[in-house]
Amino acid sequence: MVAAVNRVTQNLVLTLLGCAVLRISAFSTTYLNYVKPGFRPFLIGAGAVLVILGIIGLVQSFRQKESSSGSDGEAHARDHSREPTPYDLTSQGSGDPAPYDLAAWHLASQGSISRGSAHGGSGDPASRDGRAPGDEDHAHGHDHAHGGPRIAWLMCLPVFAIFLIAPPALGSFAASRDDTPAPRSQVLSAFTPLTGDGAVDMPISEFIGRAWDDDKKSLTDREVRLTGFVVPARKKGQWYVTRMQIACCAADAFPLKVAVKGIEPPPTDTWVEVTGTWIPQTFGKMPNGVIYPQLSGRSLAKVAAPDEPYE
Amino acid sequence: MTRMSELRTDPQRVWIDEEGPIPPDSWGRETSSRRALPWGFAFVVILLVVGRFALTPHLTAPALQTWATVFVAICVQALPFLVFGVALSAAITAFVPASFWTRTLPGHPALAVPVAGMAGAVLPGCECASVPVASGLMARGVAPSAALAFLLASPAINPVVLIATAVAFPGQPLMVVARFGASLAVAVLVGWLWLRFGRSEWLRIPSRPQGDGPKWAQFGEAMRHDLLHAGGFLILGGLAAATLNVMVPREWLTTIAGVPWLAVLVMALLAVLLSICSEADAFVAASMTAFSPTAKLAFLVVGPMVDLKLIALQTGTFGRAFAVRFVPLTFALAVVVSALFGWLLL
């Protein structure tokens, strides 16, 4: 019953991937390392669909396994006589010359949907002959024979990555690799005045926006508190408190950096809360090249990495 | 022997050794094909359990972790859209009768192409959703040229993407107009060209189960089939995109930004390589401050139509003969049309 096992394997792969997605979205906040918080319902939905599809498929194939008899071999003989050419392309097993022969596996996959999908629209009436309602075994022999495509194995890779590497949020490696300046926050043309006493908590993006674009210079002489991770700077006497900003997922992340002066650099990638005041830039116009706003640090506290690592 | 050839473990190192973080044991293994199917999955599970204790403490190199984060992010980001697209496609084949499309779309394919392109404005999905939907449309008898116009238009001109573009380019409404116009123009042009010059043997239209069985069983079956195919290719594209994303330093690009025609071409190529979701690419384009608006427009027009994960998905869905013709054609047209629109509007 290799055919049925093959079917089982397909469904197991789907279920496994679904479980991995649920693991990072429904049962933990790991998904925040990869996508925006608002994406959670979609992830849970997608994971649930995968798991449900896989489990239904498993149940179905176990039922069929019980009800099927020994006529499987006959079904296969018929398959071969029916359409020898396309399927032979993938039938060479490991002797396949090009492991990446997409057209070949694709042809093979044509037969995999279910009975009746025997081949890719060639319209061969013979492909329909095995689908009489009472002819379960033959029909299924045909299906499973050309079951899932080999490339479906790749769906195990994210599962390996999630469970074995457990990719963390992007850190100093990504932040120092990418030296593009952060996009100017064009929307924040009207900055509200900073009120209250003591240090003001603000996102690093807001600090950068106020530092460069605020005509009223609202940051002047105000103590602010920024939270981010530590990235070493090439210049001496400073380091960057950094936060990655993502628009959609971690693939489009870019670093928001503020140069901190006057405090010894903590170990790279530590999450810190740094309190200090803005050092107004001395140049009138933005110079060319990459430049970061500066903060004169007063105090520093180590903090745990936040659940939501990106801004 | 045919029946053991699928979903089995055989030496596929081409994909894995270069890009895979941890080539699973099962990939390189020569097992007898009769045993391969049940054992393949068992190896996966064993490797997961053992690797959790044996490998995880050693897989901590920053470059590897960054790569893995980007890879998982691309997969995780695209998966819900893929599931959504696959479900929609399966619903089209299982629940919408074929006669619906012949009634809705104009009878003449040359007219059906622009109508299908405009219809792309309704599906709020990214490009991963549009490939299975287009294949479902073809399987239901929609003219391939019209389905292709829909495939190209829908990720680029749907409302979600246009709003994201407007947010990313505040005060530049012309960017949204140019993106809409250029994307629709490319989609329709490619559809017409395919109608005029395309040959049916290049395009492998996936066949669907029809007729027997309850509709829900057909629906589930079609979904499972599409997921197994498109899912594998999506992940292949994610592997390539994550690798390039981590390896190409973006500051190289700013030096190129000065030469106008080169900048357009480079941004178009970058869109292909980075494979960013069409709902996010506007923000990335906006962050490339060194480039001209026309170059950014090229990035926005090419990205949803041609990128690594799409190429993989299209190859998997429609066949290689299709992809080697369709992808270069789309890319060239997208670059030319966006240069034209950029010159006219921006």
UniProtKB/TrEMBL annotation, chain A:
Comp. bias (Basic and acidic residues): 73-85, 126-145
Stretch list, region Disordered: 67-93, 113-145
Would the keyword Transmembrane helix be found if you checked this record's keyword annotation?
A: yes
Alphabetical list of PROSITE patterns matching this protein: PROKAR_LIPOPROTEIN
Question: Keywords, A to Z?
Answer: Membrane, Transmembrane, Transmembrane helix
Tagged with keyword Transferase: no
Which residue windows are transmembrane per the record?
Answer: 42-59, 151-170
* Entry-linked InterPro entries: DUF1980 (IPR015402), DUF1980_C (IPR048447), UPF0703_membrane_permease (IPR052955)
Q: Where is the DUF1980 domain?
A: 216-310
Concerning PANTHER family, the annotation shows:
UPF0703 PROTEIN YCGQ
Name of protein: TIGR03943 family protein
Source species of the chain: Streptosporangium subroseum
From TrEMBL, chain B:
Q: What is its main location?
A: membrane
Its domain of life reads Bacteria
Transmembrane segments in this chain: where? 36-55, 67-96, 147-169, 175-195, 227-246, 252-276, 283-302, 322-345
For membrane topology, the record states: Multi-pass membrane protein
Q: Which PANTHER family match?
A: UPF0718 PROTEIN YCGR
Give the family from UniProt.
Answer: Belongs to the UPF0718 family.
What is the recorded name of this protein? Permease
Name the lineage: Bacteria, Bacillati, Actinomycetota, Actinomycetes, Streptosporangiales
